[in-house]
Amino acid sequence: MRHFLKETDFTAAETAEVFVRAARMKSGRGTESPALARQSWGLLFFKKSTRTRVSFQVGVHELGGQPVMLNADDMQISRGETVADTARVLSRYLHGMVIRCHEHSLLEEFAASGSMPVVNALSDFLHPCQFLTDMFTLAERLAPGRPEAYLDSLRGRKVAFLGDTACNMANSFVLGGAALGLEVALAGPAGYEPGEQVRAQLKKDGLAPTFSFSVDPAAAVKGADMVYTDVWVSMGMEAEKAERLRTMQPYQVNQKLMSLAKPSAWFMHCLPAHPGEEVSADVLQGPRSIVFDQAENRLHVQKAVLAHLASSR
Ligand code: CP
Ligand code: NVA
Fold first, then answer.
1. In the list 133, 140, 152, 182, which could disulfide-bond 177, CB 3.0-4.6 Å?
2. Do 101 and 175 belong to one domain?
């Protein structure tokens, strides 16, 4: 049984294959083969979502399957039914599961207890569907029209990640960046270094770290091929909002910072954005921003992930 809980659950060869399949799904939307025909996939959310929820729902439908939307609050799991029992029961009905949750361990327990593929739709630890999509979106620009070269086009590229360098997206860049051979330059306030969990995961996967951490945003952005940021207050961090907005101010991605990156550098953001906080409105809406390509590509890349998992059952 294959799962996609973290970036390193796919080998480099599989990632390359997913990119090619996603490009095919994108250009041939509406003519794709029904990889999930007669299947029902559960989409279980413990947290809010716009892009992930809709792109998975539409994606399962476009692959010939039926998405079953599940809000955790409406289920017995919110009244104390165990994760393991929930996974065992749902495995009797469904063919796969997409889950957005708080603790990453819930995904692991669900995958271990059930008997269907599980996809991480964001946990406090990682957001691998977003990372994979971001790499696909960047590669579209680096190797236009050559999906078979997408993976190779990323190797050795410098990515700057500014702001909350301890969040799930930053962790995904630390882990996924090491797997794909990117140079990941993180810049955020002192105390926001990548934590023990992601360092331990690198070790477990036998990957040498390819990230650096600095409190100097200019140093991180210098010579970057892509500048990335995420919200300063991730879901669940609301109590720290005032403190975060204050300490992360120097890491706002604005024109001045963008001018230190390569002239060809792209701006990326997983969205939702808060213009005026982590990114200035002119950069977000400017000519180097490819944030809506990222949002669109969630659909195509996730369809490729689902088809890949369904075919490797
Ligand atoms: N980027 C992302 O995952 O967006 P949503 O929270 O809207 O799903
Ligand atoms: N780091 C953000 C990502 C949202 C898509 C969060 O977890 O809220």
1. 182
2. no
134 shares a domain with 275: yes
Strands of the sheet containing 96-100, edge to edge, are: 66-71, 40-45, 96-100, 118-120
* Ligand 1: residue whose CA is nearest its atom 1: 270
- Position 310 scores a pLDDT of 97
Q: How far is the CA of 76 from the centre of ligand 1 (A)?
A: 25
| Whether residue 270 lies in the annotated active site | yes
Report yes or no on 2 lying in a domain. no
Listed in sequence order, the DSSP H helices in 28-82 are 51-62
Q: What are the strands of the beta sheet with 183-187, ordered from one edge?
A: 211-214, 183-187, 158-162, 226-229, 266-269
**What is the domain range of residue 144?**
130-289
Paired tokens of 178: 């090491």
Burial of 205 (0-12, 13-18, 19+ CB in 10 A): middle
Q: Which atom of ligand 2 is nearest to the CA of 122?
A: 7
Model-level pTM greater than 0.70?
Answer: yes
The structural domain count of the chain equals 2
Burial of residue 187 (CB within 10 Å: 0-12, 13-18, 19+) is: buried
The residue count of the chain comes to 313
Residue 296 alpha carbon to ligand 1 centre in Å: 12
According to DSSP, the β-strands at 226-229 and 158-162 are parallel
Q: What is the pLDDT of residues 82-139, one digit of tens each?
A: 999 999 999 999 999 999 999 999 999 999 999 999 999 999 999 999 999 999 999 9
Q: Best mutation site among 45, 127, 173 for ligand 2, i.e. most ligand atoms within 8 A of its Cβ?
A: 127
